[in-house]
Amino acid sequence: MRLQESGEMYLETIYVLSKNNANVHSIDVGEYLGYSKPSVSRAMSILKSGGYITMAADGTLNLTTLGREIAEKIFERHTILTALLVSLGVDDETAAEDACRLEHDISDKSLEAIKQHLIKEGKI
């Protein structure tokens, strides 16, 4: 079963936050995304039951192997699409926001073509 877009966003957020802080908690995720505590708690419960994250006794969130694979894929998509939009003249903030919407729907084939183009052009 495919993870919903919101689940992918949560996994990507945990991944991004964990790059700077080994101890990511639900409150950190909520603050980063601007979501309410009940929404984040529900999402963490769904992700945990789906085998995407684990939660330590102190509330620290950790990505499972499956969760990390998805998070890294979404993060890479975000990075590539942002780079594409910036290379087309879109400002950084708008490019990042638009990439966030596009990253969940673009096919692997199209993303790979964009990635190869950006590499060829020296943009990534």
What does this structure look like?
It is a single chain. The protein has 2 domains: 65 residues, Arc Repressor Mutant, subunit A, CATH 1.10.10.10; 48 residues, Iron dependent repressor, metal binding and dimerisation domain (Diphtheria Toxin Repressor, domain 2, Orthogonal Bundle). It is built from 6 helices and 2 strands. Strands 1-2 form a two-stranded antiparallel sheet. Strand 1 and strand 2 form a beta hairpin. Helix 1 packs across helix 2 and helix 1 crosses helix 3. The N and C termini lie far apart (32 Å). The mean pLDDT is 94.
Q: What portion of residues belong to β-strands? A: under 5%
Order of helices and strands: HHHEEHHH
Ends: how far apart? 32 Å
General shape: elongated
Considering the protein shown, what is the CATH homologous superfamily of the largest domain? Winged helix-like DNA-binding domain superfamily/Winged helix DNA-binding domain
Helix/strand class: mainly alpha
Number of domains: 2
Strand order of the largest sheet: 1-2
What's the main sheet like?
Answer: 2 strands, antiparallel
Cα radius of gyration in angstroms:
15 Å
Note poorly predicted spans: none
Give the total of beta strands. Answer: 2
Number of helices: 6
The CATH architecture assignment of the largest domain turns out to be Orthogonal Bundle
- Fill in the CATH topology of the largest domain: Arc Repressor Mutant, subunit A
The helical percent reads 55-70%
Report the CATH C-level class of the largest domain: Mainly Alpha
Mean pLDDT: 94
